[in-house]
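Summary of Year 1 activities. Much of the first year was spent building the evaluation harness for sequence design. The harness presents a backbone, in tokenized form, and records the residue chosen at every position. We chose the following record to illustrate the format because it has been used consistently in internal testing since the harness was completed.
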């Protein structure tokens, strides 16, 4: 009798630094790690139960994403939220969405059909300026960006989406609802 295959063996393996990056990023985005809070390597290694190297690599990537500020020999901390930073990130996301829309022919038909269905469900809520729908909309576009098949676009989209999500939590951040609804309508009707 053949030995059954472990279902986890079919899942792609992740580097420890990528797991650390994702866990820290998620805690920043959900507010568990708050703006202004200092990060300590020892506390992060104890929390994630990994060595210092993957923590430092994750922190460097999060700093490149704009989700962590660093000053050598002074601090590593979560930045303050800013409506200006949100506006910059949202503008970049708008540009990426335009690229994705221009290259929908590269998205497999079945996935595009699924996304169109999702967008049509989100549209009424987006027209009502529902922030939760806006986050779902961004996630849908993230999946489309990944399906384009250009890892540089996929990486840029994921990084700027994280930054936008972080800064959107500032009370003065202004969402371009018209641009979002227009892009959702374009996907739905394409």
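For this record, the design step produced the sequence shown next.
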């Amino acid at each position: 009798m053949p030995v059954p295959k472990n279902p986890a063996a079919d899942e792609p393996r992740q580097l420890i630094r990528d797991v650390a990056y994702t866990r820290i990023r998620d805690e920043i985005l959900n507010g568990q790690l708050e703006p202004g809070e200092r990060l300590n390597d020892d506390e992060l290694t104890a929390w994630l139960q990994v060595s210092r190297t993957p923590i430092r690599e994750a922190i460097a990537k999060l700093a490149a994403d704009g989700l962590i500020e660093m000053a050598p020999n002074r601090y590593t901390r979560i930045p303050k939220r800013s409506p200006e930073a949100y506006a910059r990130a949202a503008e970049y996301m708008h540009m990426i969405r335009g690229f994705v829309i221009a290259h929908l022919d590269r998205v497999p038909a079945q996935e595009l059909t699924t996304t169109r269905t999702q967008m049509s469900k989100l549209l009424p809520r987006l027209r009502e300026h529902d922030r939760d729908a806006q986050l779902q909309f961004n996630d849908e576009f993230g999946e489309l960006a990944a399906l384009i098949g250009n890892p540089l676009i996929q990486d840029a989209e994921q990084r700027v989406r994280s930054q936008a999500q972080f800064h959107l939590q500032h009370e003065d951040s202004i969402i371009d609802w018209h641009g979002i609804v227009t892009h959702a309508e374009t996907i739905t009707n394409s």
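Helices lie at 16-29, 41-48, 52-65, 83-102, 109-127, 131-147, 151-168, 177-189. Quantitative recovery figures across the full test set are reported in Table 2.
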